[in-house]
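User: Hi! I have a protein structure encoded as tokens and I'd like to know what sequence might fold into it. I'm fairly new to this, so please keep things simple.
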């Protein structure tokens, strides 16, 4: 199924050897694996950006959307969201989250450990 080499052995054999089988399977899965790898990279990067914005010893900070974009923050990637009883909608990247405020402002928060 991969290299077209003649096969020896069992009649239902699909690959000439383990290397051919591995190469075939890796090619089949590569696009899915790359997509997941790229999204995980974006999520980790977003989390690190959120963490870097909060000063040492603080739990939250107010910043701007533009400042986050300059650090290459991707707003479409987040791990989960949370809506408060008052209707505020937070987006989280693992343990750091953000809340869109009026105008261009964003509140970045450090999540509480459960």
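Assistant: Happy to help. Inverse folding works backwards from shape to sequence: for each of the 114 positions I chose a residue that suits the local structure. Here it is:
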């Amino acid at each position: 199924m991969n290299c077209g080499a003649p096969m020896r052995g069992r009649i239902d054999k699909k690959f000439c050897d383990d290397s051919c089988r591995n190469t075939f399977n890796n090619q089949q899965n590569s696009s899915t694996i790359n997509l997941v790898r790229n999204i995980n990279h974006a999520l980790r990067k977003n989390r690190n950006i959120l963490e870097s914005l909060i000063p040492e010893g603080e739990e939250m900070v107010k910043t701007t959307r533009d400042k986050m974009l300059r650090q290459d923050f991707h707003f479409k990637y987040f791990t989960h969201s949370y809506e408060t009883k008052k209707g505020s909608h937070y987006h989280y990247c693992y343990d750091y989250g953000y809340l869109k405020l009026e105008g261009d402002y964003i509140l970045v928060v450090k999540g509480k450990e459960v």
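A useful reference point when you look it over: The first helix runs from residue 18 to 53. Feel free to ask if any position seems puzzling.
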